[in-house]
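User: Hi! I have a protein structure encoded as tokens and I'd like to know what sequence might fold into it. I'm fairly new to this, so please keep things simple.
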């Protein structure tokens, strides 16, 4: 297996709408997709930076994986997905 690049970086956030506003107004990026993944109890927003994507992750339940992550570690980088 050979790593070709970073596919996306997942960032856990407390508030998806506020985070989208920050990424658009301060960083100048455009959100191109928002979706809810019910079985993971998360809402996501995607931004493109060159060939890499940034995925913002907001928990829809404190019992979901992102809710537990934020409770334990606070908002921040949750995962990095590599293109192989």
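Assistant: Happy to help. Inverse folding works backwards from shape to sequence: for each of the 84 positions I chose a residue that suits the local structure. Here it is:
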């Amino acid at each position: 297996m050979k790593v070709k690049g970073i596919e996306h970086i997942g960032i856990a956030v407390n508030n998806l709408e506020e985070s989208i506003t920050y990424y658009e107004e301060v960083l100048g990026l455009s959100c191109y997709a928002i979706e809810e993944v019910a079985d993971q109890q998360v809402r996501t927003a995607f931004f493109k930076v060159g060939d890499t994507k940034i995925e913002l992750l907001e928990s829809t339940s404190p019992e979901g994986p992102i809710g537990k992550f934020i409770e334990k570690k606070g908002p921040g980088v949750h995962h990095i997905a590599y293109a192989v």
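A useful reference point when you look it over: The two ends are 7 Å apart (CA to CA). Feel free to ask if any position seems puzzling.
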